[in-house]
Inverse folding.
């Protein structure tokens, strides 16, 4: 996340095929690890990122011609780094801007959702633009029905700063008042009791908040149909 | 789905390893297909199931020792067949009951969700019980924040019949009145104008309903934060 919108960590390929294009960090699955262990190992080894607040499988990308030469099947992951973390990365690696989702519009009653086909990462190698688009859309959807904001936000934040993160990830305007009301009603947000230092323009100091929970949960899971006592506590498989 | 709860289509292994145990249908990825094409081909070839109302990637299962011998990595899918479809399946294949999720209970405020570790398919081969448990939990979660009920229900149904499907899949009681109210408010349900034939006990004939849409959507996606005109129309990445 940044002033330029959602960003993804990518490295520049120094060799053909697709020399000069941007690629997602990754590598081969080791003989003695599963894909979950592998992704954490590779993030740590290749891009020195250890502060990942949430990781989940995104999907398998297996189109036969997705990479030239020997067939490679990718298991892609979505990993989120909080906005206040700026890990040191190797020289060939950088945070690259992700294109926003296709323009929002009110669909006709019978319209199907617009499939995302345009690469979301400019100059991406292979199908990595498609993978980034899928990750962007997963993040956007899960922000709406889970507490996943915890993985984007610093430990403590003002509502205004949180709103900016949601706007960036959702790609459309969000009212800070609405955001605070919804997250509070769902018991996801609590005041820390402290206030932020005043900004350059002075004014009333803003209250700091934190997420009540830093484990992914469905926050609005059809609550009226849930058994008593379980409201808002559904685990996300 | 059935009187015995959620069911999964599985075949009995005739050879070691794990002879006599129940296995999910599957097979090797072909050279000229991606995993999505492969799963549809294999369902059609091996279990003659073509009436799948919804298919989605469930996840990659890659633990190094999950299958004896040469390492095999599985991409598992969740495929749903409506309750009124009863495809003819081969002799070694049957619908097997899936164990319900762990007992519901109100968690303590700081409790983590209970991870599912017990196999959900009795007598399952390899890690297939774990895969079935993940599928059961995915179905349960998506029923709560999407319109996925369309993939379980017949084209037309009474509210009472739909309630029975939700109760089976969710594993806890659901009020038919609540269900109708919530699905109607989300514009997921509409009356067909027809009524069901009276049951053996007579009584007032029940109205028939259908889902307004048979494409997966997030139905309650943080609606208050969405831009005008997009309420309830979010595509599920």
């Amino acid at each position: 996340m940044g002033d330029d919108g959602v960003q993804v960590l990518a490295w520049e390929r120094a060799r053909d095929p697709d020399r000069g294009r941007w690629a997602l960090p990754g590598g081969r699955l080791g003989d003695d690890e599963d894909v979950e262990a592998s992704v954490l190992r590779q993030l740590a080894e290749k891009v020195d990122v250890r502060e990942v607040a949430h990781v989940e499988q995104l999907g398998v990308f297996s189109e036969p011609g997705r990479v030239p030469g020997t067939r490679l099947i990718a298991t892609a992951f979505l990993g989120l780094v909080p906005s206040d973390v700026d890990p040191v990365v190797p020289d060939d690696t950088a945070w690259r801007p992700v294109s926003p989702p296709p323009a929002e519009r009110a669909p006709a009653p019978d319209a199907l959702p617009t499939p995302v086909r345009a690469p979301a990462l400019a100059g991406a190698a292979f199908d990595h633009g498609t993978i980034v688009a899928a990750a962007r859309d997963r993040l956007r959807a899960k922000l709406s029905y889970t507490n996943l904001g915890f993985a984007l936000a610093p430990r403590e934040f003002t509502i205004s700063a949180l709103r900016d993160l949601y706007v960036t990830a959702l790609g459309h305007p969000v009212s800070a008042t609405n955001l605070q009301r919804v997250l509070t009603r769902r018991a996801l947000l609590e005041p820390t009791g402290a206030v932020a230092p005043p900004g350059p323009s002075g004014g009333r100091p803003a209250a700091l908040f934190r997420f009540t929970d830093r484990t992914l949960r469905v926050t609005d899971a059809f609550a009226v149909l849930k058994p008593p006592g379980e409201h808002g506590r559904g685990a996300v498989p």
Summary: Chain A is about 20% helix and 20% strand. The first strand of chain A starts at residue 7 and ends at 12. The radius of gyration of chain A is 19 Å. Chain A touches chain B through 59 residues (CB under 8 Å).
